[in-house]
User: Fold this.
Amino acid sequence: MSSTFSGLRQQREVVLWLAMLAVAGVCAAGTYEHVVIVPVWTAAPPDSIAMFHGPHPIDPGRWWRVVHAPAFLLSVAAALMLRGHARRRIVGAAVLVYAVVLAVTAAWFLPELLALIGDPAALLAPDEWRARGRRWELASLARLALMYIDVALLAWAASAPARAPTPGE
Assistant:
């Protein structure tokens, strides 16, 4: 029985640490995007969005689709595996933050980004394009800050002492 508990505890810890590392990877990628890519496409639209068009366009969406799925699923798995542990509330808060970030991304960030970078011939005045790009960038930095809070919550949970489950768990 104790070896079973030890094995489950070890699995729980591994999944929690993997979740934390995966979400940290999301934050690192978001930081890179804000340091390298966003300043280029917001510099002077519509000319500056050329990186998203032409014969060899970049597609950051492909990266984000691949990276978010495992990070979010590992976070959910960690929360489920911590049933009966005080750390579950911390990980649950991290999952909630992540879910809100993904929902807001799907509802506003992605449609707005696609509207801004999707068509270089869009009927937007350059001033409006720049203003919307700046608004998107500032809001995206706030979203990134929430993801750093998410990593901090997962790190807090991962560094908190594991305890044996109470009887009946």
